[in-house]
Amino acid sequence: MKRRITIVGAGSASFGLSAVKGILQCPELAGTELMLHDIDEGALVRMGRFAELLARASGGDRSVLWSRCREKALEGAEAVVLSVASQREELWERDRAFALELGINHYAENGGPGAMFHLARNLGLIMPIARDMERICPDAWLLNYTNPVPRVATALKNYTKIKWLGICHQLGFGYYMAGVLLSRELGIELGPDYLFRWRDENLAEHDRIMDEARAKLQIHAAGLNHFTWALKIVSRETGEDLYPLLRERNRSFDAGFEPLTRWLFEVFGLLPIPGDCHVVEYLPYTHNIARRSWERFDIQMYDFVWATEVRRRKQAWAERVVESGALEMLAEVRSERAEELIAALFGKKELLDEAVDVLNDGAISNLPSGAVVEVPVAFNASGPHPVTCGALPEAIAELCRRQTVVMELTARGLVEGDRSCLRQALALDPMIDDPELPDRFLDHYAELLNKGVW
Asked: What pTM value is reported for the model?
């Protein structure tokens, strides 16, 4: 029988395309069966037809099925790829707007008070899927891409029996920043749009610089998702330690480039990988409206209008690919690594993935055992093995420890319905600077839930 891979949330014109393309074109996954599942029938049919077209072109005895029935989609699955959300941009923007009413200017995705309610909504989608997996395919691996990745993983490890890995691409931003700072030494040309902005031209420059840097550098990072720190940065060609040169460039490079990240680099001694947009999710330095530090540090808040337009364009583009059969258009679809990880989990190849969310079982010696951490992971025939990273510098470890406690309390409070845990999680959050705020947040979202507009 063919080994079945199931994608839950397959109808997405961005993530779905990436996962389907990667799995159906991966040589090590020839002879597998790809099952697609989504509750949006139109999107599911569109992606199913695309997958059939690609499977025929790829060869290798691959087959494609799709179903709106989750139980049917999970039957026989050995790997489940998960990326789900409901009204993602609309509700994310609402979280941010309410926090602004309370004086908190924050990104509101994976950290800060907004992350609590982001998690609450997504756990409403994810926990029933996990329960079905426990019953229908208990030995399958779940590869989760749904944010907030580490908080989802914390709930999964505490309240389910399934095997899971958390996956994120944010390490690429570290390669981009190192490529910019070391552009002269690496021979990377910086165009006029090299600063990070939520615009097509800047993101194209980001991807180009990231790819060129990744070919020349290797970054070894550890910490938490969206809060990892570069422990080593070396030349792939010579093995030379490039950290001394990076520190020198950090002191002299354009002050307008990722200024908060570079201040943290100077203060704490290691480069934070996620860049300004995401590192602010876990730190208190830019949220205060009165101080206007968000503006002073030029933090690039997620652009909801731009994102909605990009989503519309991707859907139209995906439809053109299906209608025309022009598979060469897929060259611009970037991999999210699902196919590489599944091939490794199936024992088809050995792999060292540079950033995976896993349980801390000694990988970072001065973070709590059993916490969800993000570290390099080696895969071989016996499964995934987190790489031992040693200890983080103590000040950085302390920043991470608080977040692990916040994640544990948040997951417990949401799954068990324990308001006291949620109050404690908010009271520990570095962005909460007024004793009234935890209850104001909780009361507001309880009211939304009671009104059915959660």
From this structure: 0.96
